[in-house]
């Protein structure tokens, strides 16, 4: 009897540990030979979270999910004005191939190519999406432990949402892959993305510099910011090296929980997906 009670206590303690087991192995030890562990993803495609045609998402629900593991929310690239969630379907497939035991959300958001859409409306879209998922979490049997994963412009929005007063700060963790983080830098407001950055803000830097500061994630960092992992490339001409350098510096200044990854030979066309996703999964396991 004492052994049973002691074992139960150990099981409870181990279930409360910080590291999550997010990967379901392809086989599990059994009597004699390994047996496959069933893992099926239920797909819900083009689910609406608003009236605009771009306010929609795809949802992938693993059959083995629980209400503790995080929900991975993907935000696509496209310089804030173009792009679609379909462009990163390959990332969804990579995550499923890894047998990730997390709900996966691949979301669209309104684009600055439409009149009146700035970063504020895009942050509102993320907030509306996460609130919808939060409200439906019991029905879907998912957690409200949201991990935003954004690429390029999507990375910028993920990092900004997690720290900006514009939303409800529902993100518990963030991953940014080649994200623009300092829009007040000439490499942003006067670089390759000059026109796109101006569309994002709504006015040129020369007449509206304060808004460029508000739209730059690094100036929102605090010690209380959610855990954040970032990836930058040393040969990225779209999001130049100065963005990586100041991001790393502001991580240090703010003393926030972070992991900084810099790859000297990488360009903006990221191709280290297996390594990157493994690091994101490991980061989420330890910090969410």
Helices and strands, in order, run as HEEEEEHEHHEHEHHHEHEH
Could you tell me the radius of gyration in angstroms? 20 Å
Low-confidence stretches: 1-17, 31-35
The proportion of strand residues reads 15-25%
How many β-strands, per DSSP?
10
Computed structural class: alpha/beta
Shape category: globular
Instruction: List the strand order in the largest sheet.
Output: 3-4-6-5-7-8-9-10
> What average pLDDT do the residues reach?
92
Instruction: Note the total helix count.
Output: 10
Distance between the termini: 35 Å
Note the main sheet. Answer: 8 strands, mixed
Summarize the amount of helix as a percent range.
Answer: 25-40%
Task: Describe what this molecule looks like in 3D.
The protein is an alpha/beta fold and 288 residues long. The chain is built from ten helices and ten strands. The protein has helices at 2-15, 89-97, 119-135, 137-140, 153-163, 186-189, 194-201, 205-214, 241-254, 273-287, and strands spanning 27-28, 35-36, 41-48, 56-62, 71-75, 104-107, 146-151, 171-177, 228-233, 258-263. It is globular and about 60 Å long.
Question: Which short descriptors sum up this protein?
Answer:
288 residues; alpha/beta; 10 helices; globular
């Amino acid at each position: 009897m004492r052994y049973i009670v002691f074992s139960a206590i150990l099981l409870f303690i181990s279930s409360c540990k910080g590291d999550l087991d997010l990967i379901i192995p392809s086989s599990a030890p059994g009597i004699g030979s390994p047996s496959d562990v069933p893992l099926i993803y239920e797909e819900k495609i083009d689910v609406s979270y608003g009236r605009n045609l771009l306010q929609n998402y795809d949802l992938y629900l693993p059959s083995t999910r629980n209400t503790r593991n995080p929900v991975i929310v993907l935000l696509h690239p496209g310089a804030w004005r173009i792009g679609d969630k379909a462009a990163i379907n390959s990332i969804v497939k990579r995550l499923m191939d890894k047998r990730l035991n997390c709900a996966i959300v691949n979301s669209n958001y309104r684009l600055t190519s439409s009149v009146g859409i700035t970063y504020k409306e895009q942050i509102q879209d993320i907030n509306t999406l996460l609130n919808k998922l939060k409200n439906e979490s019991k029905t879907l049997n998912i957690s409200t432990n949201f991990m935003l994963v954004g690429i390029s412009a999507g990375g910028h929005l993920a990092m900004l949402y997690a720290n900006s007063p514009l939303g409800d700060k529902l993100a518990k963790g963030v991953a940014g892959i080649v994200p623009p983080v300092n829009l007040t830098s000439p490499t942003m407001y006067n670089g390759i993305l000059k026109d796109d950055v101006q569309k994002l803000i709504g006015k040129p830097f020369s007449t509206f510099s304060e808004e460029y500061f508000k739209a730059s994630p690094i100036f929102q960092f605090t010690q209380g910011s959610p855990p954040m992992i970032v990836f930058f490339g040393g040969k990225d001409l779209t999001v130049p090296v100065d963005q990586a350098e100041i991001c790393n510096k502001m991580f240090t200044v703010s003393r926030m929980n972070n992991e900084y990854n810099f790859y000297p030979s990488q360009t903006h066309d990221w191709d280290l997906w297996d390594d990157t996703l493994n690091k994101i999964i490991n980061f989420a396991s330890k910090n969410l």
